[in-house]
Amino acid sequence: MMDAVPMTMGQTFATFEYQVSNALLRIDDTLPRLLVLPQGGTAAGTGLNAPPGFDGLFCATLAEATGLSFAPSPHKFEGMAAHDALVEVSGALNTIATSLLKIANDIRFLGSGPRCGLGELLVPDDGLTSSIMPGKRNPTIAEVLVQACFQVIGNHQTITLAGASGNFELNVAKPVLIYSLLQSLRVLADSARVFSRRLVCGIDVDRERLATNVDQALLAVTALNPILGYDRVAQITATALRDRVTPRAAAIALGILDGDEYDRLVDPAVLARGSASR
């Protein structure tokens, strides 16, 4: 976790929002294949002894009861020997868990502190404190989501192996596949809901801390590279780091820029917009 160029907290949360939006799309993308059912395949997919039209009647009855557009599988051998649609759902959940794990950890770190951490986010108090250190608060809600994501990612490995164990026209590993998939659905939905309600909805930013961090940001001077050249900008950075001053103060002390020039050339808001500002 090393210093880099400035960005806005809005950009951070827009990244999270985009990940979650894609997560919803990934789930939606799996639904058409989940609605294709092999019922009526009977023995190994042959349809032996099934009444004529049973598959269509079954799907129509189920569709009427659920409001979902179930349809008979056109290839019942595949539907019984393999469960690729279920593995696909687990793959989507695995990707979502990966995204949520990143989001939860980023929020944990951005809210760390209050004195020795990053402390840029103010995380809602969950009412719990350390059993050893009085008053110490931990990001327990985020930690719950992190552990749920671990479970889903681990379950995906089980589901993948179970899905690959459909030998010829029968998959005897379907019980563990279904158990793991249902568990993934439940723990991911429950933990995401709790994370949203008890943490995300109450998050705020520490504006004073953010302002201090922006003021002290060493690598904002990257904007000066096209003007001063890499080596002179590196001199400013090294001086600011050595003398424990801001890059602005270092540039002035070195006689490279005056304050007005620095403020005009190194505008954190413009830097955060990047190429979009050009």
Task: Walk me through the structure.
With about 280 residues, the chain is mainly α. The protein folds into 2 domains: about 160 residues, Fumarase C, Chain A, domain 2 (Up-down Bundle), CATH 1.20.200; about 60 residues, Fumarase/aspartase (C-terminal domain) (Ribonucleotide Reductase Protein R1, domain 1, Orthogonal Bundle). Helix content is about 60%, strand content about 5%. The strands form 3 sheets. Strands 1-2 form a two-stranded parallel sheet. A two-stranded antiparallel ribbon has the order 3-6. The longest helix is centred in the middle third of the chain and has 27 residues. The model has no long low-confidence stretch (mean pLDDT about 90).
Secondary structure topology:
Layout: H1 9-34, E1 36-37, H2 54-66, E2 71-72, H3 76-81, H4 84-110, E3 121-122, H5 140-163, E4 166-167, E5 170-171, H6 174-198, E6 204-205, H7 207-216, H8 225-228, H9 230-243, H10 247-253, H11 259-265, H12 268-273
Parallel strand pairs: 1-2
Antiparallel strand pairs: 3-6, 4-5
EC number: 4.2.1.2
GO molecular function: fumarate hydratase activity
Domain Fumarate lyase N-terminal: 3-154
Q: Percent of residues in helical segments?
A: 55-70%
Number of continuous helical runs: 12
Q: What's the gyration radius in Å? A: 27 Å
Tally the structural domains: 2
Oligomer, anyone? single chain
Spatial separation of the terminal alpha carbons: 29 Å
Structural class: mainly alpha
Shape: elongated
Low-pLDDT ranges: none
